[in-house]
Amino acid sequence: MKLATLKNATRDGKLVVVSRDLSRYVVVDAIANTLQQALDNWSEVAPQLEEISNELNEGEREDAAIFEAELCESPLPRAYQWADGSAYVNHVELVRKARGAEIPESFWTDPLMYQGGSDDFIGPRDDIQLPSDDWGVDFEAEVAIITDDVPMAIDAKDAGKHIKLLMLVNDVSLRGLIPGELAKGFGFFQSKPASAFSPVAVTPDELGDHWRDNKVHLPLLSEYNHNAFGKPQAGEDMTFDFAQLIAHAAKTRNLGAGAIIGSGTVSNKQGTEYGTSIVEGGVGYSCIAEVRMIETIRDGKPTTEFMRFGDHIKIDMQDESGNSIFGSIDQTVVKVAN
Amino acid sequence: MKLATLKNATRDGKLVVVSRDLSRYVVVDAIANTLQQALDNWSEVAPQLEEISNELNEGEREDAAIFEAELCESPLPRAYQWADGSAYVNHVELVRKARGAEIPESFWTDPLMYQGGSDDFIGPRDDIQLPSDDWGVDFEAEVAIITDDVPMAIDAKDAGKHIKLLMLVNDVSLRGLIPGELAKGFGFFQSKPASAFSPVAVTPDELGDHWRDNKVHLPLLSEYNHNAFGKPQAGEDMTFDFAQLIAHAAKTRNLGAGAIIGSGTVSNKQGTEYGTSIVEGGVGYSCIAEVRMIETIRDGKPTTEFMRFGDHIKIDMQDESGNSIFGSIDQTVVKVAN
């Protein structure tokens, strides 16, 4: 089943069921007005939405309309919980290596995770609006899951069943603000502005065999200014799977229905020390920071610039036939109007 | 105007208007079902709620029922944004001093703030449920505000007008988990479990002259295991006022209606180096950690223990006549059932 949230006059948009090929949608307001409402009552609502999804995919819904990703909010335009892991420890090691630091051994056994802000997500085709492009604007291509209610202190082996939906994420980061914030000791705040999610959220079964071991086994595609930039395998080098990330997040708290948990920047080692770019025959990267780290390690200093107003990022994931699974995130950095 | 959220069968509870003396309430579902709904449409909804509030305070509402804080959720049982400042820099200085570290000069000009989790707040009279009491369980008594929509990059001088409601907070902290999490560099996550808020949220005008300069000028009262523990003035030693905290939070993001921003642990220097306890004639403290810091600085090691299952904390704020303004937070630490 594939779900999306269309923009309307409300803050939470309108829930729709989208066909597998992303061509059509059906309004489901008789079942749930919003995705949060559906998640609040998932065990009752999901089977009803599945039924509509089946009818839609079999061409049996005469009320289906043309689906356009441009009309979408993020599936949850605002959420109660957005916790972003950093499960690809290669990414973390690379960032540290560039400044000559080793990562603590515990990073391989204890997940890194930060508490994100969730009151104002960006639509998947909306501009990334910021007051300045002097802050080292970067994208981070990630996978995320949405849970139902997760009880406190859940064991990782029981956590996988709480994964109800999958999405892609652009976890926008302001690299220039990160060192100062982390030095203060309270983690990210200003350095992690609003994130964007893929137009469509899908149930794990939509991925077939590509969803296993609580990981997505497909390449995550990033195109920067319309050039291929990254295609790492999301299922490789993911040190902590989504069930482990849920268990980490829920160690001392319940997670409410609709909690979003991110994978962190997808990053592959590719049998080399830190991976290679697509131009060099590798699988590339899911953020600019990694390229700059490579440049720093190799050349002593970074040469690739961070994003400026007008720069564009596209994030997508495709099936074997090249069809987009979630619809693509497709965004340009612009100066905020106010 | 005073507002509360009564428990019902839903996740967001039922919005009610409460009388100034906290004795009676009126259901307002013809205007808004939930506090979030009211905040989403505040400019339209607030005047209608004010009208009911006036009638209720003048004894003109025959539909008024007896108000009991025990039946309350936190005013927002779940929220889209919970950003907690640390505006009483004395508190931060004390924590650092105890481990022999100076605070950076920038801490006096650049607010500390962490991104809290907001999907599962505790009711003001509900137990603090945790899997273990070996993690250094502590309360933190604070004041918080709720905003309407705040645009990105707002100037502090324009931010005060976005403060719509005030509450008290118990920002539960797990001190034993903090050093490990902060060492990882991503800030608090497991060390900040669910927070609780006062039964009632009030508009700033309810505080009269005690609300000025975007600060609350009244003592914040903490009672630990039924003994007076703290009564610091929330208006003193608050290095950053709530307008400055809003501007800090909104530097790179919009804040959605219903965003909660906390003051951080209220802490007074009291003309001494780090304050003194109530027993010693001072205004005491708003968390156990501060007492332990004092003990460490004075005696070389802390002697006061953190909270254990069965320990109790009450947080309140009263007017000149000793009447509770927000209703009290009143909680016991217990082992989580599951």
Automatic annotation (TrEMBL), chains A, B:
This is Fumarylacetoacetate hydrolase family protein. Residues 82-333 form the Fumarylacetoacetase-like C-terminal domain. Keywords: Hydrolase. The keyword Hydrolase applies. It comes from Aliiglaciecola litoralis. InterPro entries: FAA_hydro_N, Fumarylacetoacetase-like_C, Fumarylacetoacetase_C_sf. GO terms for molecular function: hydrolase activity. Residues 1-78 form the Fumarylacetoacetase N-terminal domain. The lineage of its organism: Bacteria, Pseudomonadati, Pseudomonadota, Gammaproteobacteria, Alteromonadales. SUPFAM superfamilies: FAH.
